[in-house]
């Protein structure tokens, strides 16, 4: 078994894993753990190196993201479509080309509505 998780849409890492499974070790199955797809915009670090998570979204008075706003809904739609594109154009074709069978486990940042695609 070759297991990896938290790909977050990293094509190069996925390619290396599948190459390793096919050509380096005798692997019976590739298991990909949660957080497979890309996260979307708004993740990263600011100029001072501090982690920035969704700082562009409106906040409530307590400082937490206001998920009821149009901006938050647009962000969620963008994330869903970004993952859908990655699953259909990258993940599924790469897994289909690999001679080693695979299993995908969705994580908390993977959209459940995309599960049938994987």
Summary, kept brief:
By secondary structure, this protein is an alpha/beta fold. It has one domain. It has two helices and five strands.
Structure notes:
Pfam families: Metallophos. With 118 residues, this protein is of the alpha/beta class. The chain has one domain (2-117). The protein is built from two helices and five strands; from the N terminus they run E-H-E-E-E-H-E. The chain has a three-stranded parallel beta sheet, covered by helices on one side. Strand 1, helix 1 and strand 2 (30-32) form a beta-alpha-beta unit.
Identify the notable features of this structure and list them briefly.
three-stranded parallel β-sheet; two-stranded antiparallel sheet; 5 strands
**Major sheet: arrangement of strands:** 1-2-5
Overall mean pLDDT stands at 87
3D shape? elongated
* Helix content class: 25-40%
How does the major sheet shape up? 3 strands, parallel
Order of helices and strands: EHEEEHE
Number of helices: 2
- Number of strand segments: 5
- What is the CA-based Rg, rounded? 17 Å
First CA to last CA: what distance?
19 Å
Tell me the β content: 5-15%
């Amino acid at each position: 078994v070759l297991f990896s998780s938290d790909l977050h849409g990293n094509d190069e890492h996925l390619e290396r894993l599948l190459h390793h499974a096919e050509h380096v070790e005798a692997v019976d199955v590739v298991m990909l753990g949660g957080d497979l797809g890309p996260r979307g915009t708004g993740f990263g670090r600011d100029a001072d190196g501090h982690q920035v998570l969704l700082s562009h979204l409106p906040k409530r008075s307590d400082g937490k993201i206001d998920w009821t706003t149009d901006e938050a809904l647009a962000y969620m739609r963008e994330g869903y479509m970004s993952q859908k594109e990655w699953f259909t154009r990258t993940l599924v074709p790469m897994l289909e080309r690999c001679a080693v069978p695979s299993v995908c486990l969705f994580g908390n940042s993977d959209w459940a509505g995309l599960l049938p695609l994987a």
